[in-house]
Amino acid sequence: DSAESSPSVVFENIKTCSPNCLQMLLENISNLTVDADFTVELIPEINVAVATFMKSIDTKAFVKKCSQDKRVREFKMTARLLESTQTIKAENLPDNISTEYLTVYFESARSGGGPVSDVQLFPKENSAIITFCGHKGNT
């Protein structure tokens, strides 16, 4: 059962593949549609993209299919499941944001959040570290 596997797949070494090309490639491999079935977030600072599937798919099988794909290999990209984490960093926060607001925001199920155990605010950096009570059981 893939219920415990992540709905997100990390693609590393994406610099030789344009964002549009990457989206089309993932559509071709998954037979799904970007925006309707999954989203792609680029993180160019670390040469990575994250595909998150809203439609329930076997992401382990998808990662295996990607690693065997001729085009993925030509671009020298790698794919792996995104690990679960209990802590995230939120950046570019507005001035004067409160820990209470961040707690409520990240506990919102609509935003994919869950119970928050701690929020550390770093006003000088306009960032915060949010720690969740545990790994999400359901999506």
From TrEMBL:
It comes from the Eukaryota. Pfam families: RRM_PARP14_2, RRM_PARP14_3. Residues 5-83 form the PARP14 second RRM domain. Gene3D superfamilies: 3.30.70.330. This is PAR14 polymerase. It comes from Struthidea cinerea.
